[in-house]
Design a protein that fits this description.
The complex is a heterodimer of chains A (192) and B (356).
Chain A lengths: L4 H32 L2 H52 L7 H24 L1 H31 L5 H25 L9
Helix pairs in contact in A: 1-2, 2-3, 2-4
Chain B lengths: L8 H20 L13 E7 L2 E6 L11 E4 L17 H7 L4 E5 L12 H20 L4 E6 L1 H12 L4 E7 L11 H7 L3 H8 L4 H9 L3 H14 L4 H14 L7 H13 L8 E3 L2 E3 L8 E6 L7 H4 L1 H5 L5 E6 L10 H18 L3
Parallel strand pairs in B: 3-4, 3-5, 5-6, 6-9, 9-10
Antiparallel strand pairs in B: 1-2, 2-4, 7-8
Helix pairs in contact in B: 3-4, 6-10
Classes of the chains: A mainly alpha (192), B alpha/beta (356).
């Protein structure tokens, strides 16, 4: 369940071509760009390459995501079909009355529950699910990068900048808590 | 008339009745927003960042001097321990004359993403325990940890054994390698570094997903069918809505805490092997020498008994009790069975080992 080599090759080709021409156009127009664009717009022009690279890479990861997603749905539908077959075997024909309907509902739930729990317990399912989430996160990363590029060009704090602030705050809070404990003589500097 | 379809009139009547119940449901049941999950009155006696320490108001004269501090799980909220007056874990303990405190972990946001075990155990938990010790003039407290709160309580007791008089663990997550649940299966195959580095905190959506694959047909189909069938049973409906509200509300988990959790407990299994480090200190389960009560449920599909039970054998406590109950993860703390069996045994065990 991976991307076919041919597809990977053509995607790599496309990526190379696209980046080559973006680079060349960027270099060729650099002088004119410098003259025409100033301030944040100049930054935006420079960032155009980053945005196009991210867009191309998103497509690459979308392919992986789609492969994993198809695998995921296949696992679900195969299990559904197997459970349905088992149910059909166990409950061939029942009279249409309340008592039998209740019994067949119970059997249906038990069979489907068993088949699906077996699927969710399997290493194959967990492995594919892990990779599915992972490919989703790769897409999110590109999206974050693109958003950061745009924010940077508008001189606004990016996710990375904010994270640095959070990290700093976290570290400061810890230091203050430690100092407070020492000041209150509630313990030693290791918090005991 | 070979193609004639024969339908039992009783079945048709049942079907019509169910449809009628579905139509009547909005008039008979509250929506989730209209339900207030607060049951037993409490006061917030200490808070730090997003966490709050709750002190429940006494209902009878206190019988035990040693206070009980409950470290609730990091998944969902503490209300399940006080979900309904007839099924309230907290209320039952208060009625036994136990002084009950509870740590509410609150709702972490991105500002909390760098908080890990160190912050939770050496920071929040230790500060809460110190507050209770000071407030009640006790050298040590009784500590109860539920689910992931059981793991935090285990780590805390190993690092601060003198502050814990009695340790009780209810379905604690201890030995990830032995855990046979779907949760553990997914956790073992997760790229937690990528998740935390990309999104920060563990998103609640991931937890909802995990809930949805636990007994999907019973929980996703039969449960709601039964709800409509019982729509005229006021107590059933009220309880159903309360539990549904609780299930649907799970906060994010701080990124670094989640990272260490998945890696150290599920993927590398460091805690049970005494190889886990928290705030630079090694967590040795042999340091746990106080009386220990471990409660597990055979039908637990979130934390399997095989995952919890190893703590009973790993500690150095001489006074230790292992209780295995024929119920599930939530059934152990919020059910009629819990009120009749689990809680009386819990309160008795605690009463015999607390200062009076």
């Amino acid at each position: 369940m991976s991307i076919p080599p041919d597809f990977k090759k053509s995607l790599a080709n496309y990526k190379h071509n696209s980046l080559f021409w973006t680079d060349l156009l960027y270099l060729m127009s650099n002088r004119q760009q410098s003259l025409a664009a100033t301030g944040p717009f100049r930054k935006f022009a420079i960032n155009a390459k980053t945005l196009s690279t991210e867009t191309i890479e998103i497509n690459e990861d979308m392919a992986e995501f789609n492969t994993r997603l198809s695998g995921y749905y296949k696992q679900l539908s195969d299990t559904w079909n197997e459970a349905q077959k088992e149910y059909a075997r166990k409950v061939p024909e029942l009279p249409n009355d309340v008592e039998h309907m209740e019994a067949s509902k119970r059997i249906w739930i038990d069979i489907f529950e068993n088949y699906f729990t077996r699927l969710f317990d399997s290493a194959e399912f967990a492995e594919n699910f892990g990779k599915l989430v992972s490919s989703e996160l790769e897409i999110a990363k590109h999206w974050n990068n693109m958003a950061s590029t745009l924010l940077e060009s508008a001189n606004m704090p990016t996710k990375k900048d904010m994270d640095e602030v959070y990290k700093e705050l976290h570290s400061l809070r810890k230091r203050v808590a430690k100092l407070e404990k020492i000041a209150n003589k509630g313990g030693t500097s290791n918090g005991q | 008339m070979a193609n004639e379809i024969k339908v039992d009139p009783q079945m048709l009547a049942e079907f019509i009745k169910l449809n009628k119940n579905i139509l009547e449901a909005p008039n008979l049941a509250k929506s989730l927003d209209e339900v207030d999950l607060e049951v037993t009155p409490y006061e917030v006696v200490y808070s730090e960042g997003k966490i709050r320490l709750l002190h429940f108001n006494s209902l009878v004269q206190r019988q035990l001097k040693t206070p009980l501090v409950i470290a609730y799980a990091l998944v969902n909220r503490f209300h399940i321990l006080d979900i309904h007056p007839k099924k309230s874990w907290v209320k039952h303990l208060l009625n036994q004359g136990i002084d009950v405190y509870l740590i509410d972990w609150g709702t972490p946001t991105q500002i909390n993403r760098h908080e890990g075990f160190d912050d939770y155990v050496n920071g929040y938990m230790d500060n809460c325990v110190d507050f209770v010790r000071k407030e009640t003039l006790s050298d040590a407290v009784s500590l109860q940890g539920y689910c992931t709160g059981g793991t935090l309580s285990t780590v805390y007791s190993a690092l601060y054994p003198k502050k814990v008089k009695n340790l009780t663990l209810t379905a604690p997550v201890i030995d990830g390698r032995r855990d046979s649940t779907v949760v553990s299966n997914l956790a073992k195959h997760m790229d937690v570094d990528k998740l935390v580095d990309t999104v920060g905190n563990m998103p609640p959506e991931l937890m909802y997903y995990v809930f949805s694959i636990l007994k999907p047909f019973e929980q996703g189909f039969e449960k709601y069918l039964n709800f409509f069938k019982n729509i005229h049973d006021q107590e059933y409906v009220e309880n159903f809505i309360r539990v549904e509200k609780w299930v649907s509300d799970t906060p994010p988990i701080p990124g670094e805490l989640y990272r260490q959790w998945i890696k150290d407990i599920y993927q590398e299994n460091l805690l049970i092997n005494n190889k886990m480090y928290v705030g630079g200190r090694q967590v040795s389960l042999k340091n746990i020498s106080m009386p220990l009560l471990t409660q597990v449920a055979v039908g637990d599909h979130l934390v399997s008994p095989e995952c919890s039970m190893p703590i009973h054998y790993a500690v150095s406590s001489e006074d230790k009790t292992l209780k295995i109950y024929p119920t599930g993860h939530v059934g152990m703390i919020a059910s009629s069975f819990s009120q009749k069996k689990v809680l009386p045994e819990f309160a008795k065990w605690l009463g015999e080992r607390s200062e009076k």
